[in-house]
Amino acid sequence: MNYQQIIAELKENVLYITINRPQKLNALNKEVLSELADAIANAQTNTEVSVILLTGAGEKAFVAGADISEFQNYSLEEGRQLAHDGHSKVFNAIEQSSKPVIAAINGFALGGGLELAMACHIRIASDNAKLGLPEVTLGLIPGYGGTQRLAQLVGKGLAFEMIFTADMITAQKAEQVGLVNYVVPQEQLLQKAEELIAKIKQRAPLALASAVRAVNAGFNPQLNGYQTEIEEFGKCFDTADFKEGSSAFLEKRKAIFKGE
Ligand code: COA
To answer: What's the average model confidence in pLDDT over 221-243?
Structure first.
C-alpha cells in the first residue's frame, strides 16, 4: 500500500510510523485509519520489524482526535460501525501487536489521539503534551476504547473525571497518574523512545509476544490472564530463543536471539 497520510520508515529494525496531517493536527480520518491498519498488520509478518514507534508530524500535536468533519452526519448505525471497525482494525490490532508498540506523544493527544496512545504498550510524552478525552463536548463518548483503557490505566475515578469534565491534563500530571511512562523535553522525545527501544530490541522476540498476550489476557473478561500466562510460559520452553538465552547466561555471554 502506498501511504499518503502516514509515513512508515524502517530503520535498524524499528518501524517509525508518523501520522502526517500536521495542518489538521494529525486528526484521524478514514485514510489515516486505513493506512495505520495496513502498516500495523504488515509489521506483524515483517521479520525486519522488531519494535514499532508511533508519533505525529510537527511539534503541536500527536493526534487531536478523530476527524470531526467526517462523522458529523452519521446515523446510529454508521456511528456504531465507525467504532467497531476502529476497534478491530486499528486500536485492538495495536494493543495485540506481537511487536512492542511505543507512542511518542509530541503534543496534543485528544479523543481518538489519546485512545491511540493508550492502545500502545508504552507511552512517552513531550513536556508540551496535553492529554484528554473531550468527546462529551461534542455530544459523544470515547468510541475507540477510551472508556476502558483510561480506566485501566488511571483508575475509574480519574477516568470519570476526565471524561465528564473533558479537561485536558498536562504531561506532568499524566506521568504522575501513570498515563504515560516518561515526560521529556520535546527535543529529547525520540531519543528517550530510542533508549527504551534499544533495550527491547535485545530481548527475545517470541517472549515479548508472549508477554503481550499474557498481560492483555488479564484485561479481557473472556480470558483468564493467569491461565494464559501458564500457557505462554510453557510455550517459551519450546523456542530456540529460550535455549539461547539460558545457554548465554550459563556461559556468561550476551544472548543473540533470532525470534525462533
Ligand atoms: N478533527 C478535524 N479537524 C481538526 C481536529 C479534529 N479532531 N482537531 C483540529 N482540527 C483542525 C482544525 O479544524 C483546524 O483546521 P483549519 O485550519 O482548516 O480550520 C486545524 O486542525 C488546527 O486546529 P485549531 O483548532 O485551529 O488549533 P488550535 O491551536 O486553536 O486548537 C485544539 C487546538 C487541539 C485545542 C483544537 O484543535 C481542538 O479542540 N480540536 C478538537 C479536539 C477534539 O475534540 N477531539 C476529539 C474528537 S472526537
So the answer is: 98
